[in-house]
Amino acid sequence: MVTEMKQYQVSIVLATYNSEKFLDRSVSSVLSQTFKDYELFLIDDGSTDKTFEVLFPYLRENDNFKYMRHSNRKHPLSLNAGITNTTGMFITFLDADDEYSPEHIELRVNHMNRNQEIDLLHSPALLADGNEDDFLIPDANDMSKLIHINECIIGGTLFGKREVFMNSGGFKNIYSHDSEFVKRVSVDHKVQRFEYPTYIYHRDNPDSVTSSLRRTS
Predict the structure, then answer these.
(1) Separation CA 165–CA 87 (nearest Å)
(2) Which distant-in-sequence residues (6+ apart) come within 8 Å of 168 by Cβ?
(3) Pairing mode, if any, of strands 159-161 and 90-93?
(4) Most distant CA pair in the chain: distance in Å?
(5) Against a cut of 0.85, is the pTM above it?
(6) Tens place of pLDDT for every residue, the chain, 217 residues?
(7) Out of 87, 108, 186, 197, which could bridge 159 as a Cys pair, Cβ 3.0 to 4.6 Å?
(8) Closest Cα partner for 102 from 29, 14, 194?
(9) From the CB of residue 102, how many other CB atoms can be counted at a distance below 10 Å?
(10) Helices 51-61 and 23-31, interaxial angle, to 10°?
(11) Distance of CA 157 to the CA centre of its chain
């Protein structure tokens, strides 16, 4: 049996767990991208809400949307499952409760194509739904201290060549998996902070990183 496996320039991995209230916002921001040669791979990490019911119309109407569900394995391992099932030359991410500005993907594709020595980008985010103090989280290097999220590596902003993710073994199932990943791959790859905050980081989800970690800090 032969099946078509189209290769896209960009694969967007969106892992979700019980985020039905926020999926229209995040998925709509993908559909609004000025750059169109992408696939969206949706990983349902064992949701018990109406996640599939929300996503089904998008899956039916968009051939470049793919969906996979597995038992609850936590966010980093869900991202890894998405990575291994994508086809894009570049891989990037979007948290289920966040969104992209319309030019988010196009800016990064153009920058990577102009600077082919760069392997991986990370960026600050545009912060929504709160005051500056609301975006403080425990420092991965010292959990007794708080650090502003824009001083950290924000996993959703990672945008890189496919081989960076495939050859590195992906993310570890630990706190601050994104910063650990960047530190690890920086040994053999060129990583750059890309100063365009077109990733919109929301905190209106009570289960978001900033909300849940501040409750336990």
Answers:
(1) 12
(2) 181, 184, 185
(3) antiparallel
(4) 56
(5) yes
(6) 444 578 999 999 999 999 999 999 999 999 999 999 999 999 999 999 999 999 999 999 999 999 999 999 999 999 999 999 999 999 999 999 999 999 999 999 999 999 999 999 999 999 987 666 677 778 677 667 887 677 789 999 999 999 999 999 999 999 999 999 999 999 999 999 999 999 999 987 665 544 444 444 4
(7) 108
(8) 29
(9) 13
(10) 20
(11) 6
Alpha carbons 137 and 146: distance in angstroms, whole number: 5
Instruction: Report the b/e string of 162-196 with b at 16+ CB within 10 A.
Output: bebbeebebbeeeebbbbbbbeebeeebebeebeb
CB–CB of 200/124 below 8 Å?
A: no
Six-digit token string for 2: 């032969």
> 199-201 and 126-127: which strand pairing?
parallel
Please state the length of the chain. 217
Alpha carbon separation from 55 to 51, 58, 81 (Å, rounded): 6, 5, 18
DSSP 165-217: HHTTT---SSTTHHHHHHHHHTTTS-EEE-----EEE---STTSHHHHHHHH-
Q: Are 145 and 217 in contact (CB under 8 A)?
A: no
